[in-house]
Amino acid sequence: MADKILSVGIDIGTTTTQVIFSEFTVQNTASAFLVPKVQIVGKDIIYRSEIHFTPLVSREMIDLTKLKELIGKEYVRARIHKEDISTGAIIITGETARKENAEKVLNALSEFAGDFVVATAGADLEAVLAGFGSGAAAVSRAAFRKVINFDIGGGTTNASVFSEGELVDSFALDIGGRLIRFNKQGKVAYISDKIGKIIDVLKLNLQVGERPEFEDLNVLCMKFARIILKIASNEKLTREEEGLFIQHKNKNLKAETFMFSGGVAEFIYSNDTIATLADTAKFGDIGPLFGYSIRRIFKQSGDQLLEPKEKIRATVVGAGTHSIKLSGSTILFEEDILPIKNIPIVKVFNGGSEDIDFMDQSIREKISLYTDEDVAIAFRGPKSPRYLQIKKMAESIVSVFEDRANPIIIVVENDFAKALGQTIQDRVGNTKKVICIDNIKVDTGDYIDIGKPIENTVPVVIKTLIFKN
């Protein structure tokens, strides 16, 4: 029998804020004589909000009161209560993630939206969610090829590369449609510091308070478009161009298919010609001209653009429908401590080899960074471990946690969590809570949220938090 769970996706971007609600169908797809395999067999978007401008108190502060009011009204319109929500994600994206009160806003909205709604931020995650929401991942799986999706919003361009349905790269750039804004008189009201060097190198006369020449804006937007084409074609960037990467560069993987999503994509795939300052500034920013420039530059190159399934809604659709995974069914957990959130991952082994004889030593070294904090111990583990191997792994884990008051949380890739969890539980008795889940792949630097059980599995969200003191 199938179960239904409700998911929310909330995207708070540089320019716009959106909400969607989705219904997942969860079902045991294994036959009656096999180990249960609970999977998400259907995803239906049941409500899409209006596209709202993100409310700001100032350039550096999000208006939390208005934002909560805006999202609350969408819950009312959708006739959905916070208590109905099983999972989902709130993501602060683009330049909004760098606002002074971004972390406070995210924490407040997390409680407002539901018990197991993930609150997170970060350009890489935004890129991945947009890649799923746009359909790029699905196209790469169906066509057996590399597909790159550029999600271009107001503040950033977030790119994800998929090969045969698997994510192989994600990165972000300080390029967006609202990095230059205009007032009602057509004068420049704002220029982002992020693009100052590019403007200087191009020797453009763009000044706040002045009416710009259309040609200067055209040169800048064509430059942005060429940078994106160079990345898509795996061409070398200049030092100034490389300076636009956020946190890290790309892996220089050449894709065969190109897609664009985000607000700027609405102008990439339209037939509008942007030829004047009035055409450019009709929405108060350079978004229309930037989109038109990308359309022209890719047409000149002869590279074909594939139209996405979602454009401006790609990230929110990804947040609402692709942020959740289900663990395997052969797992062990103690329901009274679920849900748990923001648990840092401690990856026991680096690289490909895993020597369980040195497991306790490796865990002690890695876990020493987290004195009193709950952590999740993660490793791949053998595909079909023998009893003696499970016993050895359990003994290593228990020995490390003897002096810690924290619960034992284990995440393994291969399918033996229940056997390992039971062996650990036999050794600790009632002295510690134990959660052991499998079929989940994580990396050092990730954080994990584990929700209340659905059938014989638990919902899991893996994320990277970017808020640091």
UniProtKB/TrEMBL annotation:
The lineage of its organism: Bacteria, Bacillati, Bacillota, Bacilli, Bacillales. It holds the Pfam family EutA. This is Ethanolamine utilization protein. It comes from the Bacteria.
